[in-house]
Design a protein that fits this description.
The protein has 14 helices and 13 strands. It has 411 residues and is of the alpha/beta class. It has 2 domains: 242 residues, Rossmann fold (3-Layer(aba) Sandwich), CATH 3.40.50; 134 residues, Thiol Ester Dehydrase, Chain A (Roll), CATH 3.10.129. Strands 3-2-4-1-5-6-7 form a 7-stranded parallel β-sheet, with helices on both faces. A 6-stranded antiparallel β-sheet has the order 8-9-11-12-13-10, sandwiched between helices. The longest helix is centred in the C-terminal third of the chain and has 17 residues. The N terminus and C terminus are likely disordered. Bound molecules: guanosine-5'-diphosphate and magnesium ion (MG). Guanosine-5'-diphosphate binds next to α3.
Length: 411
Amino acid sequence: MQNAPPVGDTAAASPPLADRRVLARAISRLERGEAQADQLIGQLGGKPGRAHIVGITGAPGAGKSTLVHALLGALLELGQRIAVVAVDPSSPLTGGAVLGDRVRMGEHGSHPDVFIRSVASRGHLGGLSAQTRGIVDLLDAAGFDTVIVETVGAGQSEVEILQVADSRIVACPPGLGDHIQSIKAGILEIADVLVVSKADLPGADPTARDLRDMLHLRAAGAPGAWQVPVLGVSAVDGKGLPELLAALDGHRSACGRGRRLQTDPQAGPAAALLSRLLARDPLAKNLGITLRDGGAGHATVALTIRADHLNFNGTCHGGVTFALADTAFGLASNSHGVIAAGIDAHITYQQAARAGETVLARAVEVSRSRKLAVYRVDLTRDGDGAVLCSFTGTVYVTSRPLEGGGENASD
Ligand SMILES: Nc1nc2c(ncn2[C@@H]2O[C@H](COP(=O)(O)OP(=O)(O)O)[C@@H](O)[C@H]2O)c(=O)[nH]1
Ligand SMILES: [Mg+2]
């Protein structure tokens, strides 16, 4: 991954932390939609771009909260101030799970340099990911050195939430065995560091080996790209924790921070750009692909499967499915207004679509540097949300403008 230039004055001494009660109130106002993040940051003083944002994801029970607790202890020892945002989609009523997380992080929860906030996945007001980004921006501006975002592995929404992070940890407990399938569906693409959690339990080493094998199979990294380490970490005996801290530090140095600040959370102009681009795509037009939603770094397109989309087996032709995924990929990767040229794409078919069904393809930017960007596209059936395909693609980011730049604007 190429370096994104660090944003903000990284070398400056730590600013004073914002008052936690003022901060808590500001976050509540943001959650209720009473104020925008920019406004609240203006009132708090400070500016985002200083903190290292660390995302942690993994299946429920993978040991994420316990790992956050261990990281809190280690980072406090380094003299850092740390904020934690726990996003829990399984708990719409902010019930037991969130409380449980607080208890697991509890010992450090009352430390003056620690701030823990749970976010229930009501997901209104522009979606959970926009809300999470606003909260992270606030905490960053409030002066925390590290902001940890814990999110449950739940597919697309999690990938979007993790877009806010500079460094992403995927936690996998030992004994994945057959469950390795669930890892396959795109989660490896978002990991900057893979942690085999509960490394004190039997089976940690074979799991680490399996994960390394999968990484080798997937590796399409450009020369000099960040190499994703696989680390066994036990929150019980502290094994692997120093290595994890070193990996996070290394990733931050290699890939910079403030990545999220380079994309605009308000999608307006990009959405308009995407509909103009789609209108200029004859293949998409002939197939009947329409734009559902779009913005900087993401796009959702839809296609209702017709008789002339079918193959000899009577299900949707794989090429049509690919074209749908590729359209979302192309739009999302060009949404920043400069031409993005596709380098590679990889599709995994899970279930075929049938005539009459509408298929949605949602592309989300997983990472973006100066020269390269990676996208994940999920194809789901409209209605029941069944997952049909996963697609990942990489582009080379040029500096040529997409529009107003002459004859080249046809990518
Ligand atoms: N043996 C062992 N158990 C752990 C470790 N980390 C977490 N656990 C246990 O795994 C369970 C789930 O942990 P939790 O942190 O809540 O997982 P989360 O759902 O991913 O946040 C709890 O019972 C923890 O005590 C570890 O490093 N070693
Ligand atoms: Mg948890």
